[in-house]
């Protein structure tokens, strides 16, 4: 008998690839080896990898993932098949264990996975609630108007939008950051499709690179941080490799960007009271999350929930101190349902914290519940141990991490990172940094490889396309390996 423990990390808010599930990790799930079931309480002499429940779980997970990949074709939201698959997988596991009188062991494993997901959910819920609050206050639109009014050339805007989103994406989720800068690009380049194409591609690459050197940049980095594989400050060792990953394609595209200046009409936006203070509270909330984790060893979600309470009290203060006689700003009146709202109703909607929570990307959050619980189930059965033996036993850790990173062009990087963490590979800090880097920037290889890419395909439809992204794939691949080389050079002591 053997005894193992389950260490299940929380899950990166952006659904990445939408292609067929051709990644190495998913393919290796069918590698014919024998494994053992894991237990959280006692040695379990079971081998579900060769059990009917194990085979059925594999089929269910693969079918759910393929259904999620074809969401745009079938119009079936990706969360539905993944939730069903996760439910059935754990039903089969508990049923198999119950037949041997050990159902409590499987139930304990399910609860361990559930606790990890809840920590992730609370963290993301608070983060996205603040982002929705800042959007309602007009902060993002104000940034867009400020950039447009500068009367900069196309090349200057190319570098400014890329550089800004590189920095912003280290604290704001990739989809939000990408769509924000994409709105700027489309607004100033509406008469120049070539600029829109190149600038959108630059924004996708910069967003993915910027989100890879911060634990707050996405689901995969959040996983590694909350699982304790890397400390909060250790992620910043990837800043230079990520910067290289952004700069190499940007420099190659620079001369293809038009040098002319766009003609854009100026616009004025009056932000409501409290906008800047909400931005400050968001910074305080991030500081609380980091402080709770580093100083008190509490989950980062605890600090985020403390920050949510600050936002609630601030909204309460605004509600009690606002002037009820002031007019409704036209921009916000349109956002909250037009001019039919009375002033009191408008203020109640604008300052309603639960309205912000209700507008979260619940389909994506529920998808990750299904993916996390489903992969956790496969890990409990023993399949991920088998995959780990192949990836990190027969291959070198470097080759394994590079290949997994390339797979993120097709499969969501958060799902891949969770699968690797569930394998418990015994690798040094430098390899965890390498895996974080490759999974973060690997999604830039294809337009469908990351949430920002998918978002901009819709936002700049007809100007930024899958085919136009593919033309620059060789340069992006060069940047991928260049960033890996820089990582080995400057972080050699971590291996």
Automatic annotation (TrEMBL):
It is found in: Membrane. This is Sodium:proton antiporter. InterPro entries: Cit_transptr-like_dom, NhaD-like. The chain crosses the membrane at residues 12-32, 52-70, 82-100, 164-188, 238-257, 278-294, 300-318, 366-386, 398-420, 432-457, 469-490. Residues 65-440 form the Citrate transporter-like domain. NCBIfam families: NhaD_1 (NF038006). Keywords: Antiport, Ion transport, Membrane, Sodium, Sodium transport, Transmembrane, Transmembrane helix, Transport. GO terms for molecular function: antiporter activity. It comes from Methylomonas koyamae. The keyword Disulfide bond does not apply. It is a multi-pass membrane protein. Pfam families: CitMHS. Its main location: membrane. Belongs to the NhaD Na(+)/H(+) (TC 2.A.62) antiporter family.
């Amino acid at each position: 008998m053997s005894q193992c423990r389950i260490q299940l990390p929380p899950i990166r808010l952006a659904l990445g690839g939408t292609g067929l599930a051709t990644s190495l990790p998913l393919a290796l799930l069918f590698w014919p080896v024998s494994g053992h079931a894991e237990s959280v309480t006692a040695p379990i002499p079971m081998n579900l990898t060769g059990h009917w429940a194990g085979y059925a779980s594999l089929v269910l997970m693969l079918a759910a993932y393929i259904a999620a990949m074809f969401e745009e074709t079938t119009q079936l939201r990706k969360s539905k098949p993944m939730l069903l698959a996760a439910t059935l997988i754990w039903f089969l596991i508990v049923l198999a264990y119950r037949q041997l009188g050990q159902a409590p062991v499987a139930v304990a494993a399910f609860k361990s996975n559930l606790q990890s997901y809840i920590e992730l959910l609370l963290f993301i819920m608070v983060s996205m609630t603040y982002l929705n609050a800042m959007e309602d206050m007009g902060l993002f639109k104000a940034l867009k108007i400020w950039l447009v009014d500068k009367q900069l050339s196309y090349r200057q805007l190319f570098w400014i939008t890329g550089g800004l989103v590189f920095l912003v994406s280290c604290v704001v989720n990739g989809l939000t950051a990408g769509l924000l800068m994409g709105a700027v690009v489309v607004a100033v380049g509406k008469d120049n499709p070539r600029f829109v194409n190149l600038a959108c591609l630059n924004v996708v690459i910069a967003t993915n690179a910027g989100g890879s050197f911060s634990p707050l940049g996405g689901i995969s980095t959040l996983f590694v941080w909350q699982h304790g594989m890397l400390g909060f400050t250790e992620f910043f060792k990837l800043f230079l490799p990520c910067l290289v990953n952004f700069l190499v394609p940007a420099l190659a595209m620079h001369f293809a960007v038009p040098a002319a200046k766009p003609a854009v009409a100026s616009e004025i936006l009056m932000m409501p009271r409290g906008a800047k203070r909400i931005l400050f509270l968001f910074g305080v909330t991030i500081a609380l999350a980091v402080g709770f984790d580093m100083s008190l060893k509490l989950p980062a979600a605890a600090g985020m929930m403390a920050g949510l309470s600050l936002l609630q009290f601030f909204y309460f203060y605004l509600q009690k101190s606002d002037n009820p006689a002031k007019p409704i700003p036209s921009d916000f009146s349109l956002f909250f349902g037009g001019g039919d709202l009375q002033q009191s109703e408008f203020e109640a909607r604008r300052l309603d914290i639960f309205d912000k929570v209700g507008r979260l990307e619940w389909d994506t959050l529920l998808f990750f519940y299904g993916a996390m619980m489903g992969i956790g189930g496969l890990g409990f059965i023993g399949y991920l141990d088998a995959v780990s033996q192949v990836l990190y036993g027969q291959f070198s850790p470097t080759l394994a991490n590079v290949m997994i990173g390339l797979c993120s062009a097709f499969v969501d990087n958060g799902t891949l990172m969770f699968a690797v963490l569930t394998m418990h590979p015994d690798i040094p800090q430098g390899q965890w940094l390498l895996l974080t880097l490759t999974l973060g920037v690997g999604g830039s290889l294809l337009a469908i490889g990351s949430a920002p890419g998918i978002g901009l395909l819709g936002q700049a439809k007809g100007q930024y396309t899958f085919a136009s992204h593919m033309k620059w794939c060789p340069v992006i691949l060069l940047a991928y390996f260049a960033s890996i080389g820089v990582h080995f050079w400057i972080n050699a002591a971590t291996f």
